[in-house]
Amino acid sequence: MQALLLTLLLSWPADLPYKPVPQDAKLKHAPAFVDSAKLGKEGKQPVLLIEGSLPSSCHHLRLDLTGKPDSKKRIAVKAYSVADPKAMCGQMLQPFSVKVPVKAKKGTYTVVINEQAMGTIEIP
After folding, report:
1. Is 65:1 a contact under the CB 8 Å cutoff?
2. What is the three-class DSSP state of 109?
3. pTM, two decimal places
4. Which of 56, 61, 75, 106 reaches 20 to 30 Å from 123, CA-CA?
5. Cα R_g (the chain), whole angstroms
């Protein structure tokens, strides 16, 4: 899923644990397996709910939200994981569920995660 400017903006509070950080360059990058993405609400704030699995409990989710929605109103997100290459972990999928705050104008948007269309969300 990318930080969206213009009509849609996925905002990053500073303390989100899945925001990419410079230290990630020293870690091993691996896939994040995304099963679903849908729009929900937390209070009055719309949020994008993303659920899936990481390769192990040593992996940490990263969501890269950089760029603008395209002319077809697609929200593109890159989901991946990072882990310490020296860490010893059992290779067992670790489920995740995250909420990304959405600030958007009224409209319908297609959510694309890792170049796969996950569905549409509508901001009333």
Report:
1. yes
2. strand
3. 0.78
4. 61
5. 15
